[in-house]
Structure formats: C-alpha cells, structure tokens
Design a protein that fits this description.
Order of helices and strands: EEEHEEHEEHHEEHE
Oligomer: single chain
CATH topology: Alpha-Beta Plaits
Number of helices: 5
CATH architecture: 2-Layer Sandwich
Number of strands: 10
Amino acid sequence: MIVKKQSPAKVACVHCNGGCRAKKSEEGYDLCTYGCTGCGTCISACKFGAIFLNCYGVAEVDESKCIGCGACYLVCPQRVIHLRMDVNPIVVLCSNKDAHCKHVCEVSCIGCGLCEKVCPAGAVKVSENRAFIFADKCLSCGACAMVCPRNVIHDKRGILTHRI
C-alpha cells in the first residue's frame, strides 16, 4: 500500500530522550514517571513500521516511513508521542514535569531557561520544569538547541549538533 504524505506533512515525535534508563538509588530504581516505558503499544499501532525501540528502550520514529496518521499518539499510555509539522525540525525530547527527575534521568530537561533566553523569536517558554517550543513562532534557527546543557532540544535535521 502506497500512502502519500499531505503537505505540509505531520510526523510523530517521541518527547522522551531517556525512557527506561534508570539510576540506582538506595531504595531501588527510580524512573521518570513521564518518560517512555518501552511498552510497544505505539509499535503495534503503527501500520507503516515507522516506530522501533532504540538501544535505551525508548520508542523512536523513522520519519521517512511516518505518514503522520496519529495512531501512535492515540495509544501511547504515557502521552509522550505528539504530531509535529515536519517543516519545523527543532523539538524538545523530554516530557518531564517533575523537578526531581533531573536527579534520576541524566537526559531530562532541567528547566534552566537558557533556551528561552536565547530564542530571538520568543518561541521557547519554560514551564513545569521543561521547555516548550511554540511551532508557529519558531524560526528553526536552533539557538535553543545549541545552548541546551543536556541536549534535550534537538534539531531533527541533524544540522545543529554543537553546543555553545
């Protein structure tokens, strides 16, 4: 079956960079309660084979196969999958709202606000201990990605990979 993407196209994006990576604590393992659990419901829901689990047990989307149907978004129990316009490649790969999570997950957003300060368009806001990018304002310049101390903000094109 051939399915053509509509223009402008939407693609699924998993807003989790750490998932099931746990940090050993004295009480046992701590997990981010907002992260991807690697349960695989999104993989089962995707009829195009666009989702797989990466080496950390986090769902990842192959954007070349994703048609933006939203099936994965609808079944994700953690609500970490969202649809984004593929013309805007700058994404925040964290759904954490818990300030404590920065001690558990080494790749969570820490809500430092550096991204918000450097955004020339005012498209980035930090709220509930995490960054949000308003796609309608974003210039895709990547200034936020370059200053993110934990590499939580990514350029899906792979162009902006060096931090300031």
